[in-house]
Structures are given as structure tokens and as C-alpha cells.
Write a structure and sequence with these properties.
heterodimer, A: mainly alpha, globular, B: mainly alpha
Chain lengths: 80, 285
């Protein structure tokens, strides 16, 4: 089981790779969808990545607004 | 070149002539593990080491699971399509083609009966839809354009699969037949789609800023990639009991043979988008 830091590092790494940005451009509080760092069409890929990382399936129909806001939010909603 | 009105009339006539009862389809009691349900060359992992290392029985099982995935993503695509078409019935800009929207809706509903019938009878499930749609603002005409353009891209890719699999004698008869029935209607939908997408694009682009046009082109490129991503489903690889299904998904999508196949299958659609100015260059698939 990965700890919070390890999970957040993996999440940041994924976003940085997909968005082709520098690590310094993303903190755990950066609103990556709102700032269009990750597009709505890439969220499917993010969901698949988080399912693999958490070992749990995600029901996208039950997602509420803001649940994919930033890395901290992802951790709270899908890994705790 | 026919006007949109002439095309709509011709397509309505063809749909009435081709009217089918979806309950006439004969369903085998069970799926046959000895048969193919997706053409091997169209299986997502074909051309990769993952595929080569599978036994013959596993390859056939994968071809079945990929058929369930293909039909599942068609169900999700058609649900969104039906919602969008229903919303456009008798709206002020759709007066010319509302007659055809009735056929379009009817035929898409029938397709879901075929796809859902297959998935639930033989697979016991429909793979869930994991796409997320976020609300956003649109320029004048942009929402309609993107709606019909996305439908067209989705259906153009699906139709290549349908045509090839409807003619593939290796496939179980039920898989061939569903692909054939789908293609028969889609051929008309594609004629309509290509014309309506171009008409909306020509009508509204003069009023769009360079930024909007660039955003539309970027979105279409990303949509093509996102559409193809759904053909590589970690849940399918998990159901086949493959190790590390997410890594299989990522690795297969980046595989050169898979990329070449995506480009070949998408070629007709991409040519259309480029020739009509909707894309400026080939997207990186």
C-alpha cells in the first residue's frame, strides 16, 4: 500500500507526462482541469490510471463537481 | 453535389425502404468458445508481444471480450448520440433535417438492441462508460459542429470495423450479422454526417475567431485519440486474466504496429477532416 506522498508523486508524474509540462508547473493545489493542463478528453485516461493506482474501480457517473480539481482532491476522493 | 434537402429526402426514402425489425435477429443460446468474434487483425493487442504470447484459446477469448467492449462503446456512443439528436429535433436550425433525425434515432435505438443483446446474453455485462463531459461555453455554431463532427469521427471508425467484420468468414455468424446490420444503417448516417458537418462548418467558421478555430481543431485531434483509447480497455485485459492490465493498455497503445493500424483505419475520416479544413494536419494517433 502506497503512502500519501507516494500516491501524490505518482499522480503529479502522470499529469506532468501527459500535459508535457515541467514538474515545477504543478503543485498539489494546481487546478489542472480548470487551467486546461489536462483536457476533458484526457480525463478518461486519468480515471484508468487512478483505478490502477488504487486497485479500485471508479464509477464516473457518481462523480461530483470538483472531485477532479487538483492532486490533493484526487487523493482525498479516491485514495483514502 | 446534392443539397442537404435532397440528401435528406434520399436518405429518408432509403431508411423507409430498409426498415427492419430488430427482434427478427436469431440469437444462439450461448457463445462458442471455438469461434472468433472480432477479426484477429482488429484486436487491440494484435501485432504486440502480448498477443503473440497468448494461446489460441486465449486469443479467441480475447476476440470475444473485445467484441463485448466494441459493442459496449457503441452503446455509450449511441446513448450520447440519441440524447443529442433528440435535443435537436424541430429546433430552428434543424428544420430541414428533422425528418431524417426520426430515422436516425430509430436506427440508433435498434443498434443498441443488437449490441446490448450480445453483451448481456453472452458477456453478462456492458463495459462501463468512463468518459467525462465537462460543461463549457461555445461560440455560435460551435456546439452543433462539434456534436456532429464527434458523431462522424466515432461512426467512421466504427464503420471500418463493421465492414471488415461483416465480411470475415472466420467470425461467428451472430458477430458477422450484427456488424452487417450496423453497417447497413451507418452507411446512410455517414452520408448525412459528412454533409451536415461540412455545412455547419462552412456556415459558422467565418464568424469564429482564430482562437476558436484553433481550439476546435485541437479538440477534434484530441477526440480522435480519446476515441481510439476506448478500444484499448484494461478491464478487457483484466477479464482475460493478463498480468498488469494497465501496463498492457499503455504499452499496446504506444506500440508501432497498433499505431499504424489506427492510422490506416482512420485514414478516410482524417482525409475528410483535412480536405474540408476542419483539421490542418494529421493528428498523432
Amino acid at each position: 500500500m502506497k503512502n500519501a506522498n507516494e500516491v501524490k508523486t505518482e499522480l503529479r508524474g502522470w499529469i506532468v507526462r501527459k500535459a508535457k509540462i515541467l514538474e515545477e508547473q504543478l503543485t498539489d493545489q494546481t487546478p489542472f482541469v480548470e487551467q486546461r493542463i489536462i483536457s476533458s478528453l484526457q480525463l478518461l485516461e486519468l480515471i484508468l490510471f487512478m483505478e490502477d493506482l488504487s486497485g479500485k474501480s471508479i464509477d464516473v457517473k457518481s462523480l461530483k463537481k470538483g472531485m477532479l480539481r487538483d492532486v490533493d482532491t484526487l487523493y482525498r476522493n479516491f485514495f483514502l | 453535389m446534392r443539397t442537404l434537402e435532397q440528401t435528406v429526402q434520399r436518405l429518408c426514402d432509403a431508411s423507409r425502404k430498409d426498415f427492419t425489425n430488430p427482434y427478427d435477429l436469431t440469437w444462439p443460446d450461448a457463445y462458442d468458445q471455438e469461434q472468433w468474434y472480432t477479426s484477429p487483425e482488429l484486436i487491440s493487442l494484435y501485432g504486440t508481444a502480448f498477443y503473440t504470447e497468448l494461446s489460441d484459446a486465449e486469443k479467441k477469448r480475447l476476440s470475444f471480450l473485445e467484441a463485448v467492449n466494441f459493442f459496449s462503446l457503441n452503446i455509450h456512443g449511441e446513448k450520447a448520440l440519441i440524447e443529442g439528436l433528440a435535443r435537436r429535433l424541430y429546433e430552428k436550425n434543424s428544420g430541414i433535417y428533422s425528418d431524417y433525425l426520426h430515422h436516425f434515432l430509430d436506427e440508433e435505438n435498434k443498434h443498441m438492441i443488437y449490441f446490448g443483446g450480445f453483451c448481456m446474453r453472452y458477456g453478462g455485462k456492458v463495459y462501463p462508460d468512463k468518459r467525462i463531459v465537462l460543461p463549457r461555453d461555445y461560440a455560435d455554431g460551435e456546439e452543433d459542429f462539434l456534436f456532429f463532427a464527434k458523431v462522424l469521427i466515432f461512426e467512421e471508425i466504427v464503420d471500418v470495423f463493421n465492414v471488415r467484420m461483416s465480411q470475415d468468414e472466420r467470425l461467428a455468424a451472430i458477430a458477422r450479422e450484427i456488424n452487417r446490420l450496423h453497417h447497413r444503417d451507418e452507411a446512410r448516417h455517414l452520408v448525412f454526417g459528412r454533409q451536415i458537418v461540412n455545412e455547419i462548418f462552412q456556415e459558422y467558421t467565418p464568424g469564429w475567431s482564430a482562437e476558436v478555430l484553433e481550439g476546435v481543431r485541437e479538440y477534434l485531434e484530441q477526440y480522435l485519440v480519446a476515441t481510439w483509447r476506448e478500444y484499448y480497455n484494461p478491464d478487457v485485459y483484466r477479464d482475460l486474466r493478463m498480468n498488469k492490465p494497465y501496463e498492457v493498455y499503455e504499452s499496446a497503445f504506444d506500440n508501432d504496429a497498433c499505431r499504424k493500424r489506427r492510422r490506416e483505419i482512420s485514414d478516410g475520416c482524417i482525409r475528410y477532416l483535412i480536405n474540408n479544413g476542419m483539421l490542418e494536419k494529421e493528428p498523432s494517433l
